[in-house]
Amino acid sequence: MSKKNQAVGVVFSTNPDFQYQYDEEPEAETLAPQQQKLRVRIERNHRGGKTVTLVAGFVGTDADLQELGKKLKSACGVGGSAKDGEILIQGEQKEKVVATLLKLGYTNSK
Question: I need a surface site. Which of 28, 49, 72, 73 has the fewest CB within 10 A?
């Protein structure tokens, strides 16, 4: 049985009519670029001395987050990742990231 089919805290039930109840949270609707409040910062902590550029505050679907992350990584010419509402770009790329976000229609929030 996969984890998708398991309810939290229920291992086994002898009730033949038992139905698992899921706490499904709806996926967030992606806000328009003008409504996003993205924060771009440089981070060095807990990264083995490596510097990364962190874009936080994205509200939307995971697919849209991955797409934005791909555009930013391509614009900077480096690697990175996008998960949990954050985009990590390898290196100190703050100026390029901010310029790319402005070009894509995201507002500059200070």
Answer: 49
